[in-house]
Structures are given as C-alpha cells and as structure tokens.
Amino acid sequence: MELLASTSTLILVATLSIIVNRQLVPKISVNYVSMFFGGLLAVIPVLNGLVAHFESDIFIGLIVAPLLFFEGQSTRMNSVGRNFRQIISLTVGMVILCAVIAGFGTAWITSLGLPLAFILAAISTPTDATATESVVMGLELPHREATSLKLESLFNDASGIILLNMAILWYVNGYINYGQTLGDFLYSAIGGVIFGSLVSGVLIYLRQSMLRSRLNFINNTYNSGTPLKVIYMMTPFFLYFGAEAIHVSGIIAVVFAGLVHNAEGERSALANPKLAYDSFQLLDLVSDVLNSVVFVVLGIMLVRTSLDKSVTYNGSLIWIGVGVILYVANLLGRYVYCRVVQRRDNYSAWVFALGGIHGAVTFALAFTVAATQVKTQDFNLVLMSESVLIILSMVVPTILFRFMLPKTETDEKLAQGIREVREQMIERAVAKLDEMPKLSAEFKLAVTFDLKSQDGHTTVKQFVSEWRRMVRHPEYTQAEMNQLISTYQWVFKTERQYLIDLYYTNHQVSEELFNSLYREVAMAELMVLDYGSRN
C-alpha cells in the first residue's frame, strides 16, 4: 500500500507540474517546475508522508533505467559506431581526469582523506541528458556539443559507478586494488553491452515472430497487440535487474538495448501501423511522466536533506565548500579535456563543459553510500556536498548560456501560420459538406462541430449540447454509420488536398507547416475510422 500511495503521489505531482508548465510558465523548463512542486510537497507534512523513503536501487531501476532505454532508442546505432572513439574518450578518459582533479583538489583544499575525497569525486562524474535540456530551453545548442553531451550522458554512469566502488573499497580497506578495479570495469561495461545486446536481440526476435505468426498481429487494426506492448514496456526493467543480478552494468545494458531497438521500430512500423502508433504514443507518455517524476523526486530529496537535522557535518559548513570544489573541478576538467585532448576551440570547450549537468543519477549514487561501511558523518557530507554540486550545475549554465548561446528561432511565426492555414483548411472542408445534398442535417451539424473542434473553435457549452444529443440519440444503423464514415473520409480528403495544393503546387507553405497539419488530419481520420470500427 505504501508503494502504491508513493507512486500515485509522484505521478500526480509530475502531471500537475506538466499542466502548470504548459498553461502558466511555458518559457520555463518543466524540470524546474517539477523540482519546485517536489520541494513544495516535501515541506507539507501530510503530503510528504505519502512518499516513501528514497531507495536508490529502486529509483534507478524503475525510473532512470526506462528513461535511458527510451533515450537509447532515439539514438541510431550507426551514430554510436561513428562516435565510438569519442564515447570511450569522454566516458573513460575524461571521467578519470575529472575524478582525479576533483579528488585531489578536494583533499588538498579541505584536508579530507583521499578515499573520502575520491568517493565525492566519483559521484560527481555522471551527467544527466534530461537535466541538460532544462538549461538550454529556448536556446540553440551547437550540434556537435549536443551530440557529445547526449552520448556522454548515455554511457558515463557506468564509469562513475565503477569509480565509486573503487573509492569505497579504498575507504574501507585502506588501499586501492588497481587490478580488481580494472577487471570490474571491463567485466561490468563489456558484460553490460553483451547482455543488453543479446537479450534485447532475443526479445526483438520473439516480438517479430509473434507479429508475423498465426496470432494474426500483422496488419490487423482490430488487434491492438497488447502482448507485444507489454513485452516492450517490460524490456528495460527485465534488462536492468537481470544485468544487475549477474553483476554487469544494468545502465549500459538498457542503453544498448535501446540502440538495438531503434532499428526494429524503423523496419517494422508498417507490419501493424496501429500497434506501432500506439507504441510510440505510449513511449511519449511514459517518457514525459518519468522525466517529470525524476525532478519531482530530486526536489523532494533536496528539501528533505536540507530539513533533516540528522544530516549535518558537526555544525560545519564545509559541505558548501566541498560542493563548490567538486563543481569547479569537474567544470575545469571537462574544459581542459576538450581543449587539449579533443582540440576544440575555446567557445566549444566552454559550452561542452557547462553543459555537463548533474541530476538524479548523481543523487541516487550519493544515497548508495549509505548502504556501505562509510561512516554516517561522512555519508552526510557526501549527501550535502553532492546536493550543492547538483544545484550549481543547473543554475550556473542556466545563467551563462543566456549570454553564450543564440536563441532558437521563435515558433510564434510558425504557430501563427499553422493557425491561419488550419482555419482555411477547415473552411474548405465545411464548404464540402454543403455540396452533399443527401447528407442529413443532423450529420452535417455533427461533422461541422468536429471539424471546427480541430482549431478549438468550439466551446464547452457546445460540447455539452453535442454530448446530450448523442446520449439521447438511438444507435445508428449500419447504413447510417457507413454514410457518416464516408462523409468524414470526404472532408478529410478535402483537407489533405488543400494542404497538398498549398505545398506541392503553389509552394505557399513551409515543409514543417505542411507536415504538422497533414499529420493532424491523418490522426483525425485514424480516430474516426477507429471509432467507426467499434460501433
């Protein structure tokens, strides 16, 4: 019951964050809004009690893993192949450099022991792609830096985890076992790649076999393919926990599984278009909710940590200094690596360095320290310092990028064009109805209402009136339903032809505007035909 209450609360708050962001503050990233509501939830005792104690393993497995799986699925495998050397360089070479700078820098400035300093440094290395989006909203991130940041964030979590394990063993045993550390890294990383690729390959083969089997999934719009959707949605959980059970990197396993699934989605969409469409919509829904949940949880944990009187460091504020040192060390390490090793120009190096945002993964790794033999006092220092690092990594680039990056071209002009063309398109379709003398007045009113709903020119009062009419109306006969569906097909054909004439014949609209509205009409017709098949 506690897990159900906690999950429901997080999803509701995440949904509220999305609503508030879109309705009230669309110019602010939804991630910041989610963090705000998470913090607000944490300061209200009744609501705070609904969310269970934070468990890093559950958080990474149930929330972070599927997000990385979906993120990997949006990345082409050949993109990883082309950038393989860069990925290894960023996720191994640069991570080690940043950890060394942060570790020795922290120990030298604060007089902390090297093992503890390297625990802090290891946790500070993973970056978060979803967090990066929150600091560049409305700004144009250079393509090369955007690609590098995305690929880095997909694969550097495993490096951070291995370094953290090494530092904890150093803290506990008093020495570093370099051979064991290297062996663990290779086993974890390569094992994750092999496990993720092989298991996802088996799952893809299973789904494709079902899709083309006598179960009649193929090209059957009456069959939603529920078993295939369930297998697909369970894939990241099965892969992550399965990989962790054999002690290989669950993070790398789900990322590579996503890469393998990318090609499957491209080459099997037309085998059952409805199944593919439903899967894409389900993916978007889950991704939006989970991404918002990540930052709701981050807001909750930041506030809980700051309000928890047991989380202190002997009354000292050293944790603030350590957090600042960790951030500056990582920033400089990233900059130097880009300038010296990757030979990028000064501007590119600073953009990449500032774009390495830390988020929920960093916080989750900090909490894993609690389950080790690290002293409670030192764990508190880790938790508080990494909180400062996360906040700085989001606030600093949010400010500096406003001066460094160009603004994206405003969408207002495109939105205005879409509104105008959509209105003309609808008028053309409504005029088509007048050319159908055999169409009943009732059908004409119903179709006109639906057409005008396409651009929001219907009120709630009108909707209620239509709803009452439908409730009172007897079931349509098959002949009436056929006529109604045929009418919709004619008006949608009119809308599509209008768009085709504007784009291909007259060259009056942009490709982006054409694709946007054509997609709207196609989806509208899909919904009408689907409704007709159910009646």
TrEMBL record:
This is Na(+) h(+) antiporter. It is found in: Cell membrane. One of its GO terms (biological process) is sodium ion import across plasma membrane. GO terms for cellular component: plasma membrane. It comes from Levilactobacillus acidifarinae DSM 19394 = JCM 15949. Its main location: membrane. Keywords: Cell membrane, Ion transport, Membrane, Sodium, Sodium transport, Transmembrane, Transmembrane helix, Transport. Gene3D superfamilies: 6.10.140.1330. It is a multi-pass membrane protein. It comes from the Bacteria. GO terms for molecular function: potassium:proton antiporter activity; sodium:proton antiporter activity. InterPro entries: Cation/H_exchanger_CPA1, Cation/H_exchanger_TM. Residues 12-403 form the Cation/H+ exchanger transmembrane domain. The chain crosses the membrane at residues 32-51, 58-75, 87-109, 154-173, 185-206, 237-260, 280-303, 315-337, 349-369, 381-405.
